[in-house]
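seq as requested:
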Amino acid sequence: MQWWIDIRRKVLVEGVSKRQVKAEYRIHTRTLEKILAHPKPPGYRMAQPRPKPMIGPFLGRIDEILRQDRELPKKQRHTAKRIFDRLKEEGYTGGYTQVKDAVRNARVRLKDVYIPLAHRPGEAQMDFGYALAKINGQLRKVAFFVMSLPYSDAVYVQAYEKICTEVFWDGHVRAFTFFDGVPCRISYDNERVMVAKVMKRHQRKLTDGFLQLQSHYLFKEHFCNVARGNEKGVVESMVRYTRSNFMVPVPEVRSFDELNRMLEERCREELGRKLRGKDGTKGQLLADERGRFIDLPVVPFESCRVRTSTASSLSLVRFDGNDYSVPVRYAHYETVVKGYIDRIVVCRGDECIAEHPRLWGKAGVHFNPVHYLALLERKPGGLDHARPLEDWKLPSCFRDLRSRLEADLDGEGTREYIKVLRLLEKHSPKELARAVEQGLRCGASSRDAIAQFLIPRPEWRCTRFNLDGHEHLRHVQVASADVADYNRLLGQEVGA
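struct tokens:
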């Protein structure tokens, strides 16, 4: 580089002749002209591209194959070797290296270029992701809901068993509560819980579940083109960010509730961070952004999927591939089943007749043993073989009660024991166990006797005689007692 500078200075500043400089530095005229024309060496430049007689006729075919690959899954796209094999079948006679270089250059040339987008306040993006979590000692894959506000960069995350309509609902309800408002526009991809069918001209046939949520909160929707997640790139990045920062190392918790409390706390901590290129923290920007939100409705959306189901002859109703018990008196009747993310509620009219924790597998059964006691009272012989009672853990006092009843009531002891168990229809297991223990101590083991111990008895010091409804007794005068009267009565009895 130094000799380049010296030559330029001698000719252009000192006025030394070109012939003298060429002789001194032993360079060609074209080289000198290049030095004088460029402040620094321009490098090697070809006047025209080298001819490619072997691969040239096939470059368009390579571009065509790579463009078709865009519509296919990544694992089924062409490699350079596969393209080479196909080109040989079509008449290519060159080597593999030329094909490999051509494929590499074509992939760079065909890469997408994106326009930076402006993010207006009050708009949101939503997506789902997957991560591992250790819940109650079991390592499992969980789905997590992410809603991001690109303007303030605020984010809300919750974890769920799997992606379904009620999870989609619940995530929105919790996110809107966390942000204290409803974004006016939300961008989505084309998940089946939202989009029933993708149609031409960017039209979508939306699911009933999505329309119910939208009707309640009145936000506008925007759906990305198929396989174009970059159109909601902020939440795509947030899915990766929250997985890497909120769930590394793998969280170890006892339940989903504990995991979600932890995730929500991390979202609150994020509000204290400052966003690059903007003034103020994320929380301050979110406060400014709330002016563009839609107000939360007075009544929150009920995040439950409702289905009708007829109770079977086994007194079971089915929801989402799993069975749940109802009291036997509702067998063969039509019921309404409400599926929440954590529980199943079964109703008959306006009455809630059963509630169970939700099962997320398939072909599972959840029994409430109390639901079958009325039937067992009529068929006591099935007590020891009833499947709903197989894993029922009762205190040892119930075993002692059954032994006593079967010993005292020959042939009817089991039925009487079941009658005692039926008290669980109105009382908790803890209350009934306490009453059974009292009855065993007193030698009272029948159903009616044990029921007496379940009647609440107020402390006698707190009782007060009340004449409400007996107004005529207010005029009765009762004289004070005199011990002397009792002594006189005793004297009369002795004299007699």
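The first strand starts at residue 123 and ends at 135.
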